[in-house]
Structures are given as structure tokens and as C-alpha cells.
Amino acid sequence: MTQYTQIIVTKADDIATITLNRPDKMNAYTRTMGEEIIAAMDDLDADDAVRAVIFTGSGERAFCAGADLTPEGGGHVFSDPTQVDDLSDPRVRDGGGRLTLRLFESKKPLISACNGVAVGVGATMQLAMDIRLASDTARYGFVFARRGIVPEAASSWFLPRIVGISQALEWCYTGRVFDAAEAKAGGLIRSIHAPQDLLHAAKSLALEIAENTSAISVAMTRAMMWRLMNADHPMEAHKIDSRAIYRLSRGADAKEGIASFLEKRRPMYPGKVSDDMPDFYPWWDDRPYE
Predict the structure, then answer these.
(1) Which fold has domain 214-290?
(2) What CA–CA distance (Å, rounded) separates 202 from 22?
(3) Measuring CA to CA, which residue among 268, 203, 250, 222 is closest to residue 45?
(4) What is the C-alpha to C-alpha distance for residues 5 and 46, in angstroms, rounded to an integer?
(5) Of 13, 55, 100, 117, which sits 20 to 30 A from 126 (CA to CA)?
(6) Between 3.90.950.10, 3.40.309.10, 3.90.226.10, 3.20.20.150, what CATH number should domain 7-209 receive?
């Protein structure tokens, strides 16, 4: 089992939980933390026993208070003295973007349980997650303009798609920190919970997915929704969903789905995302970086 120093990974009842674990630093993000989350995602995507992944923060104050700007943070862009003239150089790449691009590639549903302060990368990393819940103590901030930089972690792609362009621009233009009620009103989060109820709510949602659905169906749905929502024409979605329906309808999971419905019992889907994805998956090739 992989040993982590800045996150905790637990698995129970088909659900994995990744806890950002630097509570004395309000779970501030470091290069090491990013690398560990990516490694954990590689492990969890390969584990067919895991049906959904929940992200939360350690302690009561913060989900993640942004990037660690001290030397301990591991060479953050603010303190890195390296001068690179070629902007295509891999050293120019934003670490938060590396993380959100990996989350984007996940085969498992990702649920954020935001338990406190989430600013900078603490907010933007959650944008690549599928469903976001928050405690009533949560605070969000896309504070980049107040630091003289711009939104990172590919958030200029994710945020407008989640909340709309006007709301995204307001939050990024002002850089203000706002509460969970404003986040919910703006469409950023699904629901608000008392701190003691937050993880229970996230796990209940994850279990609803795990206990009732095909892992292959969910993985395909996640890829289709994220990748096809901005296709130039609905025909692009029609091409993919036609192929997916054709292949999956002839598979073991579809047979079990029909049988369990007719027999009025809980389904026991045999399909594994590690081995049984349709032969045309992945259908895209849009990753310029290796």
C-alpha cells in the first residue's frame, strides 16, 4: 500500500475518501500533496472495489487554504527563481492544472465534502469534481486577482461551465471570499450541511451510486457529460451515445440491470472499469502533455 505524508486515503463500503492532511497548515496545498493525490487517483481508478471517491480536509477549519507560499510548499511559482524563456517548457506548467486534469480523467465519480476554508487551489481543485457539498462553515475564494495572478488549475475552463460566465467572472474579478450560502445560490455547490453531518451526507450520496448503478455505465456517463457538453453539434453526442448504447446493451451489466428490475432485487453488476469498458473508449485524444 502506498504511504502518503500529506493525504489520508481510506476505503470502506465501496467508497474511498481522500483527506487533505496538513491540519496545522489549514491543509495548504504543496507540490507533494498534488503528487500524492494524483498517485492516489491512479490507485483508486485501478481498484474495481471503489465505486466513488470523496474529498475532504483534515481538521475543523479548512478544506484547503490555498497554496503553501512558504519554502515548505515545494517550489511554488511565487518563490521559484527559475527563469524559463520557452513557455512550452514543462517547468512552466501549473501544478494545480496537473491535478485537475488528472481528476478530469477519473473513471470514478468524485464528490467534494468541503468542510471549511477553500481558497485559491483549495477552491479550484473542487471544480474538477462532479458533485460538491459544503458545511455551513465553508468559505470559498477565487482570490487570484488580489494576488496579481490569474485563475489556475484550468479553472477558466471548469468554473464557467459549472456556474455560468457572469457568476464566474464576478467571483474572479472581485477575488472576494464568500460563504456557503452564496456558493449554493451561485450554483457552485449542491447542498449545505452542519459540520457533523457533512461526511455522512457525502457518503450517503456515494452509496446511492455504488449500490444501484453499473460502474461501467457511470464511468461512461462521466466521460460523456464532461467531454460532450461543448461539442459543436448534438450529432457528436449522438455518435458516442449510439455506440455506447449498442455496446453496453449487449453486455453483462445490461442483462443484470434488466434481470434485477424484473426480479425486484438489488442489482449485482459484474462489469469492471479496469477491464470491461467499451472497445471505443477512450474516443478522444486531446492531451498535449504526457
Answers:
(1) Lyase 2-enoyl-coa Hydratase; Chain  A, domain 2 (1.10.12)
(2) 21
(3) 222
(4) 21
(5) 13
(6) 3.90.226.10
* Residue that is written with C-alpha cell 449510439 in the block: 242
As beta bridge partners, residue 16 has 11, 53
Residue 53 β-bridge partners = 16, 110
**109 closest CA partner among 9, 235, 14, 245:** 14
Provide the grid cell at 51.
465505486
Q: What is the mean pLDDT of each run of 10 residues along the chain (290 residues)?
A: 91 97 96 97 97 96 93 60 75 87 97 98 98 98 95 96 98 98 98 98 98 97 95 96 96 97 96 95 71
Cα 206 to Cα 75: distance, rounded to the nearest angstrom: 35
How far is Cα 123 from Cα 119, in angstroms, rounded to an integer? Answer: 5
C-alpha cell, 234:
448534438
Q: Which amino acid is at 249?
A: S
Supply the pTM of this predicted model. 0.93
What letter does residue 271 receive in the DSSP assignment?
-
